[in-house]
Amino acid sequence: VVFISAVANAHSADLLPGNRIIAAASHLEDKGDRLILFDIDRPEEALWSDDLPKGHGAVWDESRSLFWALSNTDIRSYTFRDWASDRPSLELVSSTELPEPGGHELSWADNETFHVTTSNECWQYQLETHTITRHPILGGSAQVKSISSHPDTGRIAYTQGEGGNWWSENIHLKDPDRSLSYPGKRLYKCRWQSAMPGARLDSQAAE
Fold first, then answer.
1. Residue 185 to residue 48: CA distance in whole angstroms
2. Least-confidence region, from 29-38, 72-81, 167-176
3. pLDDT band with cut points at 50, 70 and 90 for residue 199
4. Which of 46, 48, 78, 60 shows the shortest CA–CA distance to 17?
């Protein structure tokens, strides 16, 4: 275990430079709806936080030195301020409104593009132009909770809420199409884990 801290209804987190980690906490009374920044060696102390309504996405973009976050209604980018100090913070750089509410997934499609999902649709977001277009493969799919592109092959794995629930018993793959079934499980997110030999699919998920 690298880091553990109490973050209400956390949906995503990512490692940042300088031994820091940031989490997106979603709606839960007055403890959620926030971005929260920590030092990995001081998990009991939040270094900084800011409003992020129904926060779901957190992605560090090393090539652009930007941090990206997904709220219920927009995609935001941030830059660092006073990062070498004991009181670092993030400063908003841009905000792009989603085509509909319900921002849920924010993940890499490639170096220039994010996968994005909302309540009733899947999208792609172009980082340089800040434009959002219907997803070329999963467009029209509702309640998609996660999309992950294999870093070498680009093959997509995704989870989709089933029976009106937030969870799924299946992980779906595209090109070629296939489903991995886990009866009785409540799968939420899936991610390709490329650090392992053969780049296996990591199906460990929140229940």
1. 35
2. 29-38
3. very low
4. 60
Q: Would you give the distance in Å from CA 131 to the centre of its chain?
A: 18
pTM of the model: 0.91
CB-based contact 158:148 (threshold 8 Å): yes
The residue length of the chain stands at 207
Alpha carbons 116 and 111: distance in angstroms, whole number: 14
Decide if 123 contacts 135 (C-beta within 8 A).
Answer: yes
Question: How does pLDDT run across 181-191, given as a tens digit for each residue?
Answer: 999 999 999 99
**Which amino acid type is present at position 78?**
Y
Cβ neighbour number for residue 18 with a 10 Å cutoff: 11
Q: Dig out the tokens for 27 from the structure.
A: 């709606």
* Radius of gyration, alpha carbons of the chain: 17
* Single-letter amino acid code for the residue at 5: S
Both tokens assigned to 19: 């031994």
Tokens encoding 98: 């989603």
Residues 188, 192, 196, 199, CA torsion sign? positive
**Residue 80 to residues 48, 127, 169, 207: CA-CA distances in angstroms?**
11, 18, 39, 33
149 within 8 A of 158, measured Cβ to Cβ = no
Strands 191-192 and 201-202: antiparallel
Alpha helices of the chain — where are they, by DSSP H?
A: none
Please say whether the beta carbons of 33 and 53 come within 8 A: yes
How far is 149 from 193, CA to CA, in rounded Å? Answer: 10
